TrEMBL record:
<keyword id="KW-0594">Phospholipid biosynthesis</keyword>
<dbReference type="GO" id="GO:0141152">
    <property type="term" value="F:glycerol-3-phosphate dehydrogenase (NAD+) activity"/>
</dbReference>
<keyword id="KW-0443">Lipid metabolism</keyword>
<dbReference type="GO" id="GO:0008654">
    <property type="term" value="P:phospholipid biosynthetic process"/>
</dbReference>
<comment type="pathway">
    <text>Membrane lipid metabolism; glycerophospholipid metabolism.</text>
</comment>
<dbReference type="InterPro" id="IPR006109">
    <property type="entry name" value="G3P_DH_NAD-dep_C"/>
</dbReference>
<dbReference type="InterPro" id="IPR006168">
    <property type="entry name" value="G3P_DH_NAD-dep"/>
</dbReference>
<comment type="similarity">
    <text>Belongs to the NAD-dependent glycerol-3-phosphate dehydrogenase family.</text>
</comment>
<keyword id="KW-0560">Oxidoreductase</keyword>
<feature type="binding site">
    <location>
        <position position="254"/>
    </location>
    <ligand>
        <name>sn-glycerol 3-phosphate</name>
    </ligand>
</feature>
<keyword id="KW-0520">NAD</keyword>
<dbReference type="InterPro" id="IPR008927">
    <property type="entry name" value="6-PGluconate_DH-like_C_sf"/>
</dbReference>
<dbReference type="Pfam" id="PF07479">
    <property type="entry name" value="NAD_Gly3P_dh_C"/>
</dbReference>
<dbReference type="GO" id="GO:0006650">
    <property type="term" value="P:glycerophospholipid metabolic process"/>
</dbReference>
<feature type="binding site">
    <location>
        <position position="34"/>
    </location>
    <ligand>
        <name>NADPH</name>
    </ligand>
</feature>
<feature type="domain" description="Glycerol-3-phosphate dehydrogenase NAD-dependent C-terminal">
    <location>
        <begin position="180"/>
        <end position="319"/>
    </location>
</feature>
<keyword id="KW-1208">Phospholipid metabolism</keyword>
Amino acid sequence: MSRPVQVTVLGGGSWGTTVASLAAGNTPTLLWARSADTAREINEQHTNSRYLEDRALTPSLRATSDLREAAEHADVLVVGTPSHSIRDVLAEAAPHVRPWVPVLSLAKGLEAGTRLRPTQIIGETLPGHPVGLLAGPNLAREVLDGKAAAAVVALPDAATACALQPLFAAHLFRVYRNEDLLGSELGGVLKNIIAIAAGMAEGLGVGDNTRAMVLTRGLSEITRLGVAMGAQERTFAGLTGLGDLMATCMSPLSRNRRVGEALARDKTLEEITAEMGQVAEGVKTARTVVELAREHDVRMPIAEEVDAVVNDGRHPREAYRGLRRAAAEHEYHEVA
Ligand SMILES: NC(=O)C1=CN([C@@H]2O[C@H](COP(=O)(O)OP(=O)(O)OC[C@H]3O[C@@H](n4cnc5c(N)ncnc54)[C@H](O)[C@@H]3O)[C@@H](O)[C@H]2O)C=CC1
Ligand SMILES: O=C(CO)COP(=O)(O)O
């Protein structure tokens, strides 16, 4: 008799823990947390209070702070650490991961310097493994609270995607699939920059028309860059595109939106990051996105203003004045 598929999730933060809890409802799952205290709390109390307060995790979820044990356990490996740490964590785990184990990324940022997407970093550190991602409008706390949500397994190979879908699905968590890995990954990465802009708007006290404008023009920027990089346009109208953009721009739970809002209320980035104690990927990724846009000759006025705020100290009020000066081109076609 064959044994059930074993899932390992690397990263004991808000989302890694939540995905591990979902998977544990379906199959034996081991979560690797850097902190031994976090691993112990998950095993003994079935909570991760540092990131998810007193929310109950699936009781069968096991955790370890031993990376080798976690890697050896994996029939399917899920990488849930922030983008900037993926390369180092996987370099250490790689000798212990069996060949051909599929690897799914949860991360929504780009590696500074290399400008690589998380799945490309995985491809470099774990060559020969099928690589994809799990993404969508998935604010961790809401998913763990059992509120209905949907995600996408994006992977070029449909058969592998089909096999992975049921591992993460739950009664009120629907998992779709999509072969456009590039578009699905870029949707999750780029929406963080627009969410910072949406937060800035919130902090400046804008109206609903302005909110709608930021979100819609933000989607235009995301789609333009994504298509220029080779993604399918329709992906940006789906869960990993418009869906994730809406959730992140609208929800006070979003860390990226909270960063933008606090900046508009005159807090410094250092104060905000220290208070939050969690990752807001858009902050580190904004400069890389602007560089990519220039390289692909794509206009991204909102991303440029966000970059100027987080990297050059421009005040959000000035950024919004800057946007008012941006040329109103044709709504769908860029004018040179
Ligand atoms: N929280 C959410 O609702 C969602 C988050 N994501 C994405 O998932 C990724 C992880 O985010 P969260 O879990 O929310 O972050 P988090 O800030 O809640 O937790 C980050 C985790 O990574 C660990 N970590 C940080 N640096 C590390 C390093 N150098 N080596 C090993 N571990 C390290 C921390 O100890 C912590 O366990 C991000 O890319 C985020 O954009 C995606 C969907 C939803
Ligand atoms: O990606 C997310 C929801 O899908 C979480 O967004 P934040 O990282 O801004 O909290």
